[in-house]
Every structure is written in structure tokens, then in C-alpha cells.
Amino acid sequence: MTAWKRCRGTSRSPTTAPGRRVELTSYQDEHDAGRRIAALATRLPVPVGQVSRRSVVLPYRRGMAAKKRPTPEDTAAARKILLGGLARDAKISDLMRELAPLHPRDNTFPGEVFLRLAADALDWCGASRADPLALEGLREQFLPECAFRGRQNKKLQYAVLAAAALHGGTEPELLDEVAWWQNDDFWQYALFAAVAYVRAAASRADAPVRQACQYLAEHQDRPGP
């Protein structure tokens, strides 16, 4: 059994229960293995001259069965469920229950789908370096039904900034980040970020949320007018 935990700045072994042996690989071995997994997952052709936000699925725990890995149909379903729920003003808790079956255990999916959707929402409302969308008060104004405490705020902040980075043309390093989270909940915080961004984009455009959702459902990875 290999423990998927890293101890930063120390070479001591973690404490284990009597009689239980935990075999640890080195930080560098795990770091290199994670990067090899990410490299294989993202080795897709990108048309010359075209910037493409790729749907990168990162398994951050070992031993996940291949049959449980997400399919393109799962990606489409996750986007459709979230946009449909937002358009009808569904509760976030209800959306999470509906989306949960699409999440393979110890996998970032469908978090990547939600980050891409958040980036699309920023495109749609015209957010740019010259005219940015202010993040101050984003949680309080556009996620009023959610309460975050302690590390939960840091996790939400990471998802919010990762979506902004994706919109800016960079690929967030999800694997190294979420491997430290311990809880298998990255996809949930990506969901919160997407909900906040879609609502914020609609507010900025002075349009109903359902209008933003309708456009985003019809125009994937394409900027609004």
C-alpha cells in the first residue's frame, strides 16, 4: 500500500498504527509520476493559431480503474446539468447531488469542466485585462447561500483563481495543488467557482442568469458578442 501524502521539508516517515506497514515513495518519485500522468492526459493536438482550453482530467490518486474514467459524454452531461440547474435557479446542494454520480473517486473530474465553464462566462461578459471583473466580494454577493470556514475559503479561492488563469490563457497546475487537499472535493469547489462566475457575468452584462446559461450552453469555448 502506498501512501499518497507528501511531507514538505522533512524526511521523517509518517506515524502509522502498530502492525501496519506504510510504504512511501520519495517526493520526487511521486512528483515525477504525477507529471507523467498529466503529460499523458494532455497530449492532444491543438490547431495552429488557435487557443484551445483542453478538458484535462487528472487522476490524483493511484489505482483508479480505467472503466471509471470520464468520457466525452460525461463532460457534456456535467456542463448541461450545471447550466440547466442555474437557468432554473436550482439550489447548489441539489446540483451537487445531481452531479455527484459523474465524479470518479479520487479524480478531479468534473472540476475541469466547471473551470472551463467559468472561463467561458468571463469571455461572454467581456472581462479582460483592460476591463476586468472585480473578484472582491464575489463569494458574498454571488454565493450567498454558501458558508465557508477556514481552509474551505482557501480551496474556493484556488478554484476562483484557477478559472481566471484559464481565461487568461494559462493552464492551472491542478495535480500538485489538489494532491495536498486530502479530501476528494476539488470538483465541488470548482462548481462553486463556476456558479459564482456565471452569476457575476450575468450581473455585469445586466442580463438574467438564464440568458447567460442559454448562451453558454450553445457556445462552448467561444466569446460572447
Q: Could you give a short description of this structure?
A:
The protein has nine helices and no strands. It is mostly helical and 225 residues long.
Entry keywords:
225 residues, mainly alpha, 48% helix, globular, disordered N terminus
What can you tell me about this protein's structure?
- The termini are far apart.
- The chain is an all-alpha fold.
- The protein has helices at residues 27-41, 72-87, 92-99, 111-124, 138-142, 151-167, 174-178, 186-204, 209-218.
- It has nine helices and no strands.
- It has one domain.
- Helix content is 48%, strand content 0%.
- Helix 2 (72-87) packs antiparallel against helix 9 and helix 4 runs parallel beside helix 8.
- Mean pLDDT is 77; it is low at 1-58 and 60-67.
- The longest helix has 19 residues, at 186-204.
- It is globular.
Question: In terms of topology, how is this protein built?
Answer:
Blueprint: H1 27-41, H2 72-87, H3 92-99, H4 111-124, H5 138-142, H6 151-167, H7 174-178, H8 186-204, H9 209-218
Task: Supply Rg.
Answer: 19 Å
The gross shape turns out to be globular
Count, helices: 9
What share of the residues lie within helices?
40-55%
Strand content: under 5%
Strand count, sense and barrel status of the largest sheet are: none
Low-confidence stretches: 1-58, 60-67
**Count of spatially separate domains:** 1
**Based on DSSP secondary structure assignment, what is the total number of beta strands?**
0
Q: Mean of residue pLDDT?
A: 77
What series of H and E elements makes up the topology? HHHHHHHHH
Going by helix content, strand content and strand pairing, the class is mainly alpha
Compute the separation of the termini in Å.
53 Å
